[in-house]
Every structure is written in C-alpha cells, then in structure tokens.
Amino acid sequence: MSIWWSLHLRREAASVPLARRLLIGTMETAGVDPDISYDLSVALSEACANAVEHGGDTGPGTSEAYRVTAYLDGETCRIEVSDSGPGFARPPDPRPARPDAEHGRGLCLIRELADHVHVGARPGRGGTVVSFDKILKWKKDPSLLTA
User: Fold this and answer.
1) Which residues of 93-119 are buried (b: 16+ CB within 10 A; e: fewer)?
2) Is a pLDDT exceeding 80 seen at residue 82?
C-alpha cells in the first residue's frame, strides 16, 4: 500500500495540530500500530513547531508558509517538513538539550522517535528540510482493508 499527501501551511501555531491530526487519521485508516502513529505524530509536531518558529523572515523573497509531506510506502513512513527560513549557520548539535531547557529539544526528540533523521538545507532555495522515517508496524484489522 502506498499513500502520500502534502500540505502547504501558514507559519502559525494552529497549523501544527492540523498536520498532526491528518497524519494520525491517515495512519489509523491504513492500519498502522497506534504506538508507531503516536511516535511519528509527536516527531511531526516538533518539526512543524520548528518550522513555525524558525522557518522564515518577513524580508523580501521569504515565505510565511511551510510544507509537510508524508509518504506511507510499504513498511516505511517518511515525513518531510520544509521551510524558507535562514537555515542553519552550522549543523544542529545532535547532543540532547538539558532537561530543564525551554528550547533545543525538538530535533533530539525527533531523533529519538524516528529510525532515520536528516536535517539539511533546501536545495537551491534556502531554508531547511527536516526529513525522518520509521519502519511501520500494523494492527491486526486495519480499517482500510476491511472497508
């Protein structure tokens, strides 16, 4: 089974739960194990929150939007969140943030919840792409197969 969708969202806090609910609904319908769905939805929320907070300027040529794309293909789910922000001056620190830190835990959390994570520049456009994937586990009776 292969399912994919892409959203073009405003850089507003209200967009984060929208993307999360769409992902959870898609995975529930496809029959993905709820624990895997939850992990991916938390990782997606963190990536979206980073795009909302850091994903753009108000200067010329920048966008007040970001894009979320999810692919459920075979046994893997891949999620990409891209923005048009300034990107990283240097690669993000892979070390965990302090437990009492207010910021800086999102990418570490994504790395803990996903099987593979890549953070890089958006080719040719500026901005950042956070992509992550996870091997899927399935429920015994997926509703997509019983419909």
Assistant:
1) eeeeeeeeeeeeebbbbbbebbeebeb
2) yes
